[in-house]
Specification:
The radius of gyration is 23 Å and the shape is globular. Helix 5 (about 75-90) runs antiparallel to helix 6 (about 95-110). Helix content is about 40%, strand content about 15%. By secondary structure, it is α/β, with parallel strands linked by helices. It has helices spanning about 1-15, 25-35, 40-55, 55-65, 75-90, 95-110, 115-125, 130-135, 140-145, 150-155, 160-170, 185-195, 240, 260-270, 285-295, 340, 345-360, 385-395; strands at about 175-180, 200, 210-215, 230, 250-255, 275-280, 300, 315-325, 365-375, 395-400, 415, 425-435. Bound molecules: S-adenosylmethionine.
């Protein structure tokens, strides 16, 4: 019953979109609401929830402009239902008459019969309008639905590209996977998927990346349960491809959970000793689950990367990966709720933590070794400025990041923008430490 999916989408969004960043994680609430729904209804619920989070500010702007008076605070689920109905009319190709019939029923199910007429009238009005025409007159932060602080930061950093970056951040993302090169090859996995009538296209940046269509829950794909591939964005696959270490070397993955890159490291360096460190003990089991599914191994440590004195055994690492906690501004299309959960002040705190992690871990890198720093952010304070600051304070460090044609201009490291049907926004920098074996 599609109505059940719509009702649950309202519950999801009411829990996720709370004032002052207080809402729950979209993915976590969706997982909680999935049981009992058919796969098609799970898809509808997820589409409504992701869609409203992506276009929240625009939808809210239209709604408030077209209502005579605001709804009472106790009617928040009704307001959310109106936003979801508006999203469905404007941004999906579902038949308008079906959508217009469905949402008044949802209002009735919410025990708000008083809202059915209002809902009907508003959605009818919206169905006669084009969201592009409506949004063309609005401020960019409303048109692209981002909080003011994020718009200001992006416009400051990327005056020419900011609007395009935000437009791409509201696209539905493609399903990208990383083939487990220890168990198979990209061609073999693509052939297997194609034989089962999925479309599998090779990525252009990462040698292990496949894009799969149509995007479906990954456990429905042949080969996933056997550990032949993992879900991972193409840009997120690149930091590990920049790393090098002796065959039996020692590698630290310093911010490991949920373990996507720990597993990738184990695939790329089968005989290396890999340590996966994570500060959040509740997230560590997910690293183990990922490794188990792929039949890979690493040493798991619960600890704080800024405090190596508490967990480091004193043996230096050939290579260190810092996949740092960040604003997630490069992956808004995958985590649109993060726009509404992060507050302006969070960015300064993240920048400070990233800097502390870099400074604390550099002494653990062997002379001649490397540290790869990565974020899924588009903001310079977390990326090129962070690396420039680090380089200015460390004479034994050199930026050795390969250039890429797809990158945005950057004075340190490599900044990739989100691209339609391709990679997320991502930053990485390979920092080499001078010493024996160090290049020219
Ligand atoms: C971007 S996520 C890492 C994603 C992971 N590398 C992957 O590919 O699946 C950042 C992680 O760093 C962890 N973290 C945050 N502060 C940390 C710290 N001081 N020390 C170690 N881990 C930290 C967070 O809990 C989070 O799990």
């Amino acid at each position: 019953m599609a109505d059940a999916a719509r009702r649950r989408a309202v519950r999801v969004l009411t829990a996720v979109l709370r004032a002052r960043g207080g809402g729950e994680s979209l993915r976590a609430v969706l997982a909680r609401e999935r049981p009992g729904l058919s796969p098609a209804d799970q898809g509808l619920m997820a589409d409504l929830a992701f869609g409203v989070c992506r276009h929240y500010r625009l939808l809210e702007d239209w709604l408030h402009a077209h209502m005579k008076k605001p709804l009472k605070a106790g009617a928040r689920p009704v307001e959310v239902a109106l936003l979801a109905g508006l999203y469905e009319v404007w941004f999906t190709d579902r038949a308008h008459h079906a959508v217009l019939n469905a949402w008044p029923d949802v209002c009735r199910a919410l025990k708000a019969p008083w809202a059915t007429g209002l809902c009907n009238a508003l959605l009818r009005k919206a169905s006669g309008q084009d969201p592009r025409t409506y949004s063309a007159e609005l401020a960019p932060e409303i048109r692209h639905s981002v909080p003011d602080w994020l718009w200001q930061a992006l416009r400051h950093d990327w005056p020419e590209q900011a609007e395009e970056l935000l437009a791409r951040s509201n696209d539905a993302p493609p399903l990208a996977v990383r083939v487990n090169r220890r168990r198979s090859s990209r061609d073999a996995v693509a052939a297997r998927l194609q034989a089962a009538h999925w479309d599998a296209r090779a990525g252009e940046l990462s040698p292990d990346c496949l894009y799969i269509e149509p995007a479906r829950p990954v456990d429905q794909l042949p080969g996933f349960a056997e550990g032949l591939f993992s879900v991972q964005d193409e840009a997120a696959q690149l930091p590990v491809t920049l790393m090098d270490a002796p065959v039996d070397g020692r590698i630290l993955d310093a911010c490991a959970a949920p373990g996507g890159k720990t597993a990738q490291l184990a695939e790329h360096f089968p005989e290396a000793r890999i340590t996966a460190l994570e500060a959040d003990g509740d997230r560590l089991p997910r690293v183990q689950d990922n490794l188990d599914r792929l039949a890979l191994a690493a040493e798991l440590l619960h600890g704080d990367a800024t405090r190596p004195d508490a967990w480091w055994d004193g043996e230096a690492f050939d290579a260190v990966l810092v996949d740092a906690p960040c604003s997630a501004s490069g992956i808004l299309r995958r985590q649109p709720d993060s726009k509404w959960h992060r507050l302006a002040g969070d960015l300064d705190e993240l920048v400070r933590l990233q800097g502390e992690i870099l400074v604390a871990l550099w002494p653990l890198v062997k002379h001649g070794g490397m540290l790869v720093y990565a974020t899924c952010s588009l903001l310079k304070s977390e990326n090129e400025e962070q690396v420039q600051r680090f380089l200015a304070g460390h004479a034994d460090a050199r930026d050795d990041t390969p250039e890429r044609a797809e990158a945005l201009p950057s004075r340190a490291g490599c900044q990739l923008p989100p691209a339609k049907g391709a990679q997320d926004g991502f930053f990485f920098a390979r920092l080499c430490k001078s010493g024996k074996g160090f290049g020219p």
